[in-house]
Amino acid sequence: MELTALGFLAVVLTVKEAGLPIPVPGDLLVIGVGAAAARGGLPAPAIVVVLVAATVIGGAIQFALIRGRARTAVLHLLGRVGLPASTIERGAGRFRSGGATTVAVARMTPGVRIVAIASSAIAEVSLRSFLIGLLIGNGVFLTGHFVLGLFLGEPAVRLVASAGTGLIVAGVALAAIGAAGWLLICRRRSRASAARAEPSPASSETALDWTDACCPACLALAVLAPRVRTGDAG
Fold first, then answer.
1. Rounded to two decimals, what is the model's pTM?
2. Number of structural domains, the chain?
3. Per the domain annotation, does 18 fall within a domain?
4. What's the CA gap between 209 and 172, in Å, rounded?
5. Tens digits of per-residue pLDDT, 72-126?
């Protein structure tokens, strides 16, 4: 992988983590970087360090903005999409009491990781605890996706080149199956929330969850990993 390409991707990830909704899943970008690294160029550890640093810088920018002037606007927006103040405060309390550990776990968890930065800022987690949790969580999440691309990306490219249209159709079918599976997971969560007489996640949150369901690793984590509910994450 070339230095210029890595620099461009680092800028994109920084901007995404700062809160600008660029419509490209970050996990797929990192998997693609891993696939490119398999072809040679810059050493893999250096690439991972640059990508993790970019996401930490972007996350710190978003954290500072929401703790500052954007806080009122964010709380107003959350109320508009259906999150009552009680749910926001409950989620904020979890981040406030859990500190760096809760931030790290949330940033490793598909779906929840998207709102972890805003939730930490709303909860007024200390900057030190937030940065430690962000570094650990992003490090684990990004490294896992990079390694996935490193070992599976190049064989997948060769397979697509040799199989042609049939494999593309199969990929679309698998994506549809993945979407159906993710919707079933969301429905199960909604039923569980209803059984506990708790507010179910807003539809906009479900759409955000889907952006982290773009690879097999994320979908598996959503099913198997200890779940931190999006609604509880603020």
1. 0.67
2. 1
3. yes
4. 19
5. 777 666 666 566 666 667 777 788 888 899 999 989 887 778 778 888 888 889 9
